[in-house]
Write a structure and sequence with these properties.
This protein has 116 residues and is an alpha/beta fold. Helices cover 43% and strands 14% of the residues. The chain has four helices and four strands. It has a four-stranded parallel sheet with strand order 2-1-3-4, sandwiched between helices.
C-alpha cells in the first residue's frame, strides 16, 4: 500500500505501481496529507510509503517527514522528477520555485536528514 495524489512528474511511475497486483494506491487531497497518512499507516503496520511530485509535493511533505524522523517511524518517500532532458535546458519549469536550479528540493531533504 502507498499514499499519493496524481501529479505530472510522477504519472508514469504511478501507472506502473497501480499495475502491480500487490500494491494499492490510497489517494489523498494534498502531499502534506499524503505524508501524515503514511505516518499513521507506519504506526499501525510498520512502514509508510508515499509518492509525491517534484518540488511542490516534495517541499510540502517535508513536515510529515520531519515528524516521522522525530517519532522514529520507518518510511519510504519517492519524489517524481523532471525528464533528464530538462536538466540540460536551463529552463524554468512549472513546479519549481522560479529558478532553473532543480536541486533546491534535494538540498532541503539533505538538511532535514542531517539534523536527524
Amino acid at each position: 500500500m502507498f499514499f499519493s495524489i496524481p501529479g505530472d512528474f510522477k504519472l508514469t511511475l504511478l501507472n506502473h505501481l497501480i499495475a502491480e497486483s500487490g500494491l494499492n494506491l490510497i489517494g489523498c487531497y494534498n502531499e502534506l496529507n499524503v505524508g501524515y497518512v503514511a505516518d499513521g499507516y507506519a504506526k499501525l503496520r510498520g512502514v509508510g510509503a508515499r509518492v509525491v511530485t517534484f518540488t511542490v509535493g516534495g517541499l510540502s511533505v517535508l513536515n510529515a517527514i520531519a515528524g516521522a524522523y522525530s517519532e522514529n517511524l520507518p518510511f519510504i518517500c519517492i519524489v517524481g522528477r523532471p525528464n533528464t532532458n530538462d536538466y540540460r535546458t536551463n529552463r524554468i519549469l512549472h513546479h519549481t520555485i522560479g529558478l532553473p536550479d532543480f536541486s533546491q528540493e534535494l538540498r532541503c531533504f539533505q538538511q532535514l536528514q542531517a539534523t536527524r
